[in-house]
Write a structure and sequence with these properties.
- There is one protein chain.
- Helix 1 (about 10-20) crosses helix 4 (about 185-195) and helix 2 runs parallel beside helix 3 (about 125-140).
- The protein has an 8-stranded mixed β-sheet, sandwiched between helices.
- The radius of gyration is 16 Å and the shape is globular.
- It is of the alpha/beta class.
- The chain starts with a strand and ends with a strand.
- It has one domain: Rossmann fold, CATH 3.40.50.
- It contains 4 helices and 10 strands.
Length: about 210
């Protein structure tokens, strides 16, 4: 497959690129500066300058954008909508690295994780910004999108176990009562979604059993 990873220099982006390359896919990293990923091809370009022509020929475009600057949290929405606009009515699918805060706490789907009293206040604005972006994406029927939320504990340094559980809109816990996934195992799930081409127009989640 031909896969583009936008914001490939980030921690999630680098893991997704490495997993894809190891599977034999041809990967192009879209980065703003010197490439840090293991992609075979590199395009140095600001996300907001990426055009539909730049994304032609790809089977999948992975949006790994993240911004933790409190003054720029709106970019989670503006960047995602920009990429969606460039992929409007295109054959390429858009896979989005999402957040856990917008997952629901139970099957009633009334309360999101970010709204729980125990949710850290310092992360609440970021979680809200990512939730807002997901709400906008849900309205897009002109783009073949899939949004993948990690477990609540998204561990950049965690091991690659090679296994995961794919779930839906509700936060799930493993046998130890943990909502956990490593970046490496998340990258496996993301690449599986890329290869299987399922869950179009859906938000799914992933955790380690």
């Amino acid at each position: 497959m031909k896969i583009a990873v936008v914001a490939a220099n980030g921690a999630a982006g680098q893991h997704i690129v490495e997993e894809a390359v190891n599977r034999g896919h041809e990967v192009t990293a879209f980065v703003r500066s010197e490439n840090k990923s293991k992609a075979q091809n590199v395009v140095v370009k600001d996300l907001y300058e990426i055009t539909s022509d730049d994304l032609k020929g790809f089977d999948v475009v992975v949006d790994a954008f993240g911004n933790f600057n409190m003054d720029q949290l709106d970019q989670h929405s503006t960047s995602l909508i920009h990429l969606a606009d460039q992929l409007s009515h295109a054959q390429a699918r858009l896979l989005v690295v999402g957040g856990a805060g917008s997952l629901y706490t139970d099957k009633s789907e009334e309360l999101q994780v970010k709204d729980e009293a125990a949710f850290p206040d310092i992360f609440r604005p970021l979680a809200q910004a990512m939730s807002d972006a997901l709400d906008l994406l849900r309205k897009r029927t002109d783009v073949k999108w899939t949004y993948l939320s990690p477990a609540e504990d998204f561990d950049a340094e965690g091991p690659r176990t090679g296994s995961y559980v794919l779930a839906g809109e509700v936060r799930e816990f493993n046998s130890k009562g943990k909502s956990y996934i490593s970046y490496a195992d998340y990258a496996i799930a993301m690449n599986d979604l890329a290869e299987k081409a399922n869950h179009i127009h859906e938000r799914v989640s992933v955790y380690t059993a």
